[in-house]
Task: structure prediction
Amino acid sequence: MGALNIYGTIWGTIPQTTGRVFWVSPGDTYTVEGRTYSASDNNDGLSPERALRLVTRGVDLATGSGDVVVLLPGAHTVTASIAADTANVTIMGLPAGRGNIIRPRATLACSAVDETINVTAAGVEIAYIQFVSTTSQASALVNFSLDADNLHIHHCAFDQFTATAATTILGIDAIGAANYVLIEDCYWSCDGAFGANIDMTATLDSVVRNCIFQQSAGTLAASITVGAATDRLLIQRCTWQIIGIVTAVIDGTGATIASGVLVHDCRFGSLSTIALGNFSAGECELAENYEASVGSGAGGVLITAIA
Result:
């Protein structure tokens, strides 16, 4: 009966679903309720006591709408990009309470020269995972195509410091014109000339909110990039702590849509060269955004113009 009780505790943190729940172990052996089990991709993965060994196997089995792939706490590594190509599937770590967005308990790294997760289906949810860049990394930690409508990424952390700095390594990268993308309650840590933390080029009716971005060393060209055809993008209540330098925190190079972006209630570190830049007149609207001051400063300056 102990196992049934622990299901009640663990399943309380899993989204309500009519699909199946697949459990994945970070190692060959793992512990649930004080008992040690062996993980194997020959298991069905449908119980914490019969966990799969690889995240890719769990995602491959999640072929039904509403299926959930749960990464048990620990360091998970994949040797090839994970193809999130089934609609309405959730890939998530196992949080404790609301979870710690700075360092989620489940980490995921890709040892291939590729993105860690490639989302090409609608309604995918990714949550409670720390994405760790590797020395092999040469692409985004997560990217999504035009077919990734309704993508929801939340309570994740993105490591853009373990890999050797390269502008080709992004946190989240839009490689297609997806609609209704929601990125919220996430954390980025970066320490050099990497690619953007988030690229939202060509997305429609999408939101980035309640996120924290930290640039601890070196120079980042842009934190959020907004390129051609981005329309009705809301960037709201985000904070940048900048110890290194960010040249243009929100960069509108290539933006083409009048009033295509609204930046509301954001806070920018004092070491940002430009808080918002490279938009043409009328492409970005501002409301209640402040740039920090230091020492005996005024406690922040209202941003009223785009550089």
